[in-house]
Input
Amino acid sequence: MAAWRALGRSRVLPLSRALTGRGCRFAPERGAECRDAAPSRVSRFRPPRKSHHDWIGPPDKHSNLRPVHFYIPEDESAAEQKLRELRQETQEWNQQFWANQNVTFRKEKEEFIHSRLKAKGLGLRAESGQKATLNAEEMAEFYKEFLCKNFQKHMYYNRDWYRRNFAITFFMGRVALERVWNKLGLKQRTSR
Output
């Protein structure tokens, strides 16, 4: 079984403090399926019942991104729910984009290699039985061509990525303020 680890109150990711709370429910993990790739296998991993953190999994084989089991506090407010749902949506969108992009990249790379080897009169395997390869300069041509061809797609992806992260950051601030406000409200009530 692949290793999962808890993402809780740590110095590495201080913003995660706004996401931890009380209770022990987790959002269902949705498989990140992409059109061109085989569906990602949904992990059967379930966090411990008493865990109060998001859990990060091993990299997905298509997107190379790590899936997250999101923690759902039992007393989750509307703002906290909106934040969690926005994070889940963003994770699924990101998983699908990179799974599609990586499948396309691998497919086009193989086609490029096959066409170049064929043009040289070589097969996929050398006489020794090893897989035939191209040199770094020839592969640099492919990488440049691939990046140029996908420039517009990456530009739109980056624009949407920044929009989504701005929205997530906004809701994280809103949730943090809501929690501070609730704590202050409780302290004022108990001091009276």
